[in-house]
């Protein structure tokens, strides 16, 4: 995984956690637990589940503010 991919994955996970926190009025730890359970239940990578959630909500892909 390149550093750009790692940044995008981390960004997607953080954004997805924020969305889950807002929707469920929960802590970051609880949101990460929810995201992790979904990932496990779907047998998909955490970063892929997070990216899918953000794409569904925003209608576009995940971008970092470092993208040029």
Q: Helices and strands: which structural class?
A: mainly alpha
CATH topology: Arc Repressor Mutant, subunit A
Q: Name the beta content range.
A: under 5%
Distance between the termini: 19 Å
What level of helicity do the residues show? over 70%
How many structurally independent domains?
Answer: 1
CATH architecture designation: Orthogonal Bundle
Number of helices: 3
Q: What low-confidence regions span 5 or more consecutive residues with pLDDT below 50?
A: none
Largest sheet: none
Shape: globular
The counted number of beta strands is 0
Q: What's the CATH first level? A: Mainly Alpha
SSE string: HHH
Architecture overview:
The protein is mainly α. It has a single domain, classed as Arc Repressor Mutant, subunit A. The chain is built from 3 helices and no strands. The two termini are 19 Å apart. The model has no long low-confidence stretch (mean pLDDT 89).
């Amino acid at each position: 995984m390149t550093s750009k991919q790692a940044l995008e994955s981390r960004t997607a996970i953080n954004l997805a956690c924020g969305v889950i926190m807002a929707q469920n009025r929960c802590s970051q730890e609880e949101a990460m637990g929810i995201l992790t359970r979904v990932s496990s239940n779907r047998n998909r990578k955490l970063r892929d589940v997070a990216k899918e959630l953000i794409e569904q909500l925003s209608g576009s892909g995940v971008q970092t503010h470092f993208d040029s």
